[in-house]
Design brief:
Elements (H helix, E strand, L loop, with lengths): L5 E4 L5 H10 L1 E4 L6 H8 L3 E6 L7 H5 L6 E4 L9 H6 L4 E2 L6 H17 L1 H9 L2 H5 L12 E5 L3 H12 L3 E5 L10 E2 L3 H6 L3 E4 L13 H7 L4 E4 L8 H9 L5 E4 L18 E3 L8 H19 L9
Parallel strand pairs: 1-2, 1-3, 3-4, 4-5, 6-7, 6-9, 7-8, 9-10, 10-11, 11-12
Helix pairs in contact: 1-12, 5-8
Length: 314
């Protein structure tokens, strides 16, 4: 019987799929190792595959310790922290999990939009902390109907968000690398131009160097004191210190954030602000979607080691 391929688990997938991986491969748990570097030094030459997520950096230097690495299977759609160029130079394919998470991320985007405009989290605290009883009705919030949502990144997720926003009678505009001829929405050449035309600026673009710091002070000022920012993309897309200043100085009306620059160790200055909604990077975090994402990891590894085409190569 042929030996099972050796796989390094940097970030595990769901328990059901981890059992599948345990049956098919020899797993080395980098995520559980007391000394991950020592583990890599010990087993690096045997490793033929990696299981991880795009939230964990995978550098050229780390991969150099695995001379026989054949595939990197991500349990996430984002891969901006993975040195894909180094993988390509070595002929190592990278797979991710597109499509299966689109609906859940778009749902969260709309939930955050509702929350920042209508103040649902704030209202819940208002009741729980006794303010309704002691101070009377909470101040009125802002309606979604008739507002414009400007979407930065009109890909799969951006389009799914747009469809949901249209159902709530919002107008849609967008900014991206290029204008798309098959959509009916207004295109803006710059993020600042889009922000100035939007009531809600929705960030749904990929992370990475191309979008790092895309939302600057100028973009936030273009969004203005009645505008709201929603980020379900990557924390790196926003100049976070400038966002904090804009919120503290009420230069924008509010923000709803599922992602942060240094998550989970986020700036505690966010915690005291009442005009920001905070979520712990849960866009795809439903049992159904995380299960489907984990299954894609299993299926891509199985395809690779069977010599078949990969299902979702980057």
């Amino acid at each position: 019987m042929a030996a099972k391929p050796d796989i390094l688990v940097i970030i595990p997938v769901r328990p059901v799929q981890m059992k599948m991986l345990e049956e098919a491969y020899t797993l080395h748990r980098y995520d559980k190792a007391e000394d991950p570097d020592a583990l890599l030094a010990e087993v690096g030459e045997k490793i033929r595959g990696i299981v991880t997520m795009g939230i964990s950096p995978l550098t050229k230097e780390t991969m150099a310790a695995m001379p026989n690495l054949e595939i990197v299977a991500l349990g996430s759609v984002g891969y901006d922290t993975i040195d894909v160029e180094a993988c390509g130079a070595r002929g190592i394919p990278v797979t991710n999990t597109p499509d299966v998470l689109t609906d859940d991320v778009a749902d969260l985007a709309m939930a955050l939009t509702f929350d920042t405009l209508r103040g649902y989290s704030r209202g819940e605290r208002y009741v729980r902390e006794g303010q309704w009883r002691d101070e009377g009705f909470m101040a009125p919030t802002t309606s979604l109907t008739g507002k414009t949502m400007g979407i930065v990144g009109l890909g799969r997720i951006g389009k799914a968000i747009a469809r949901r926003a249209e159902a709530f009678e919002m107008a849609i505009a967008y900014h991206g690398r290029r204008q798309q001829s098959d959509v009916p929405y207004a295109f803006h050449e710059t993020p600042a131009g889009l922000a100035s035309a939007s009531d809600v600026l929705m960030l749904a673009c990929p992370g990475g160097d191309a979008t790092r710091g895309l939302v600057t002070r100028a973009v936030l000022d273009a969004l203005g004191p009645d505008g709201h920012l929603v980020n379900i993309s990557r924390g790196s897309v926003v100049d976070e210190p400038e966002l904090l200043k804009a919120l503290q100085e009420n230069r924008i009306a509010g923000a709803a954030l599922d992602v942060f620059e240094n998550e989970p160790d986020i700036d505690e200055a966010f915690f005291v602000l009442d005009n920001v909604v905070l979520q712990p990077h849960v866009g795809s975090a439903t049992r159904e979607t995380r299960g489907a994402m984990a299954q894609l990891v299993v299926d891509n590894l199985a395809a690779h080691f069977a010599g078949k085409p990969l299902l979702t190569p980057v």
